[in-house]
Write a structure and sequence with these properties.
Length: 50
Amino acid sequence: MSLVTILLNIFLPPLAVFLKHGIGSTFLLSVILTLIGWLPGVIHAFVVND
């Protein structure tokens, strides 16, 4: 995992997921989790962008 990916996972989780997987269910889940709370979005981004 590159430094850019790690920073995107922390500061813009949906963007990091979008860059790796495109628009789909994973991206939508990331947006929803980030809107619910920042931390769930970050955790999801790290798990998905493994």
